[in-house]
Amino acid sequence: MRAMLRNRPGPAVLTIAVAIALSVVVAACGSSGGTSRNTKMLQSLGKTEGQLNLIEWPGYVESQWVKPFEQQTGCQVHNKDAGTSDEMVQLMRTGQYDGVSASGNATERLVDAGDVSPVNVNLVPNYKTIFSDVKNQPYNTFGGVHYGIPHGRGANLLMWRTDHVKTPLSWSVLLDPKVAKGYSGKISVYDDPIYIADAAVYLKTHDPGLNITNPYELDSKQFSAARCRCSSSSGHTWASTGQTPPSRSSPTRAATTGSARRGNTSTSL
Question: CA within 20 to 30 Å of 39's CA: 148, 152, 221, 251, which one?
Answer without folding.
Answer: 152
